[in-house]
Amino acid sequence: MSSQSQDAVADVSVLPLTRPQLAEARRIRAAELFEKRRPSSEVARAVGMHPESVRRWKRLWEQGGVQALRRRPATGRPPKLDDAQVEAVRAALEQGARAHGFEADLWTLERVGVVVERVTGVTLARASVWRLLTGRLGWSLQRSRRQAVERDESRSPDGSPTSGRASKRGGEETCLDRVPRRIRRIAAARGASHLCTRGRTPTLRHRLNWKRAGMAAALGYHAADPERGPRLCFHLKPGSYDTTSLIEVLERIKTSYAGESVVLVWDGLSAHWSRGMRAWVAEQDWLTLERLPAYAPELNPVELLWSAIKTRELANLAGDHLADVADAAERGIHRVCSSEQLPWSFLTHTGLTIHPQTPRN
Fold first, then answer.
1. What is the three-class DSSP state of 219?
2. Can you spell out the DSSP letters for 262-294?
3. Cβ–Cβ < 8 Å for 166, 151
4. What is the pLDDT along the chain (361 residues), one digit of tens a residue?
5. Rounded to two decimals, what is the model's pTM?
């Protein structure tokens, strides 16, 4: 065989079997073994099925031959997408999520649904998108393989140094935690499964140098005058929070609540109750500190704020720089502030006694 024909064979990609196709292939293989007079127990081991299922197949085979074991055409409502549209969706998805304007090159059901609507003009529900991916496209949930963007592909893989020093500890993605603790650093999509073509492990490229950012927030309301609405103060900084930086945040809160007394309820973080913090609070006649019970995040309304941001603006975000995460977090904060209901719902969820009529922000 010539080298040209070998290359042509190498370029041929075999699509994986869908579940109905795989089940049919097992039945056809069982029929071949039936013709050879193999016992049902041996056939069951050969095709990886329960002996009772194989015996049922054998009865069908004895009555109608191999044709009785073939897949029957589906009945009911026809699919919304024809074969040509499905192939158009396949080609669009193989371009990657970034090619369609998403921040991270990861596929989710929501993102796939958006691409399907753009390509075909057909809107699919989440369940329909899942059936399209796993049934007609042969996709599955797979754990991604991580690769550093600093990696130099031009160098040989024999252990020679690459262009850029990569740490083995993780990625650059950050995730907001409860206020005002440090933002926990997590590798982009670590431990998560993502939609990808069955049999092809997705590769997630991200930076392997650790960076840290912190975010603090205070969500409060005026008990004596509910018409004022809730007030949300937030602060972003590179690195972690300590006593000094937290005092700077409290100074800004003091300016925001100028001339008013404030009762601040927060958790037992060491920086909250350090010697320096207690000494500074002792000089403040406007501030009173109260401590949340240990292991009681449901009493902290800011926990719900973090959850609202992490499940939307920060969901599936794998930015190249720490500023990307900071920008996404600020967009989430502004979205919450522009809502008339979210801040009140965070406060109400904690069990606080709030004015029954929900005023506008």
1. strand
2. EEEEE---GGGG-HHHHHHHHT-SSEEEEEPPT
3. yes
4. 444 444 444 444 455 677 888 889 999 999 999 999 999 999 999 999 999 999 999 999 999 999 999 988 767 788 899 999 999 999 999 898 889 988 777 788 888 999 999 999 999 998 999 999 888 888 877 766 666 555 555 554 444 443 333 333 333 222 222 333 333 333 333 334 456 666 666 666 666 566 777 888 888 887 677 677 788 888 888 888 899 999 999 999 888 888 888 888 888 888 899 999 999 999 999 999 888 888 888 888 899 999 999 888 887 676 667 788 888 889 999 999 998 889 888 888 888 665 555 555 5
5. 0.52
